[in-house]
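Table S5 (text form). Sequence records supplied for joint modeling of the two-component complex.
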Amino acid sequence: MSAAPKILVVGSVALDSVRTPYGEAENALGGSASYFSFSASHFSHVGLVAVVGRDFPAGHRALFESRGVDLSGLETADGETFRWRGEYAAELGHAHTLETRLNVFSAFQPKLAEAHRDADFVFLANIDPELQLHVLQQVRRPKLVISDTMDYWIVRKPDRVLDVLREVHVAMLNEEEARALAGETQIVRAADRLLEQGARAVIIKKGEHGAYYQSHEERFIAPAYPVEALTDPTGAGDSFAGGFLGWLACSGRMDGDALRQALVCGAAMASLAIEGFSPVRLIETSQDEIERRVARLHRMVHFDLQPLFQDLG
Amino acid sequence: MSAAPKILVVGSVALDSVRTPYGEAENALGGSASYFSFSASHFSHVGLVAVVGRDFPAGHRALFESRGVDLSGLETADGETFRWRGEYAAELGHAHTLETRLNVFSAFQPKLAEAHRDADFVFLANIDPELQLHVLQQVRRPKLVISDTMDYWIVRKPDRVLDVLREVHVAMLNEEEARALAGETQIVRAADRLLEQGARAVIIKKGEHGAYYQSHEERFIAPAYPVEALTDPTGAGDSFAGGFLGWLACSGRMDGDALRQALVCGAAMASLAIEGFSPVRLIETSQDEIERRVARLHRMVHFDLQPLFQDLG
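The corresponding structure-token record, covering 626 residues in total, follows.
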């Protein structure tokens, strides 16, 4: 595919082994760029920049192709694919990592092809902030760049994480990461603090409690879609980002209304991701199912605003 | 005041000593019925049924009267008023109780006056479920009864807590209580389970993450109002209940739209409660300020529902 993808993601493609109270998966397709790509692919054309090893199964590659994901930026290096092994306890809040083998990912140096440098929308998934900055130098004039990060980088390279946060349009973090980076326990204040430190906008992911967007102008709250069939929370945040950026690319709008809709698309995609191991539900879902979840979220949060006290005097 | 109050609350009036990272208060007016009354008083006429000791300050009584709360059901017994001493850590999630002296509250037996038995809306605040059932036998034909509870009763009298849950229109619990009572770690499943066990509807309070309403017909999600000046989370749940029941009493409606609006009024009142020690902010707030918070919550969650994929084919 030679046309420039509208959306570019730079992150990891991995083989995950995960155990949750609801089952387990061995060497299943995983990685931030995978979840993001499958999620965003329902909305727009996605190009993926990542690295895998010689052991990466052709079947996995075919899954990306089935969703129209541009794999021209998926490098194959000598060695093994990044492997992660983890488990979740009953609350499913946080993964307990049992083993991380970076393998070929440890030497990953994202080099964007010409066509990729013109992407309008860019997701800098959770990789070394130095690499995120390196990618930012290569993209030409993106309309919107979102970054993700993780506690590992906040502890080791807080200044670089803040450099990234200042360079992107929206910095995405989870609650603990926002607290750690801002040095504030209260989330609203943590968001204020990150804006003071130069962020243009932040999205704070709160898992089953939804997501919170704050810029200098606006605050939005998107609930999580209530999932009954929760199976494996891996990839929820990346799938959220895929729905968010996907809808902005698809709608061609970036006003407040579009941002709110994008948050809800993100919530819908995250809810699908966690209903199965690996991104299976993101691959098999349909536009109809996504529409239904967004409509259901609308019903759950919408209320008519009317004067409360008009008759009371 | 001889007219029957529209809303009746049965619960505690206490003297609280609270320390948070933002300050402290000694022997300040507290108790579930206090927070609820001040909150609901902005919407409708409230009658309070509780007990205090001979030491209860006349100034506190005057505060209730300043908000038009009917204190004819506030018994004064020989002995001291219920006292609670607690502190909150930086996260402000849960109070650490340092001391509880039930005093006159330990022999509390709510007896409703004739006029009170005709209340349309009843809040059974967190008291012994046996007493809650005793109150339910005394009210004649309430339109809506909401119950609250706490882990203390769930551990000691789970069957009685479930009896109450089956008798009321809406059972209100926080996340941990819902998990404990339902025996389910996932909140959505816990709500399902409580409905299976006979609840008509549940509201699960999630603190800074808002509240979740589920009945057999509907699910609503109300976010919390983002508070910058968080001072003392004591009474947030009772203040939420006051806004919720207050709006239903005020609007005279109980359809889905009214329930959603009521959840948001609850969120607005809870946000005011936690901005100060004791119910000071609930007492001094205005209809204008409440309207503004509800309108702001509307802006934060509202999004236009439109077909996502109409142009994609």
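Note: The mean pLDDT of chain A is 94.
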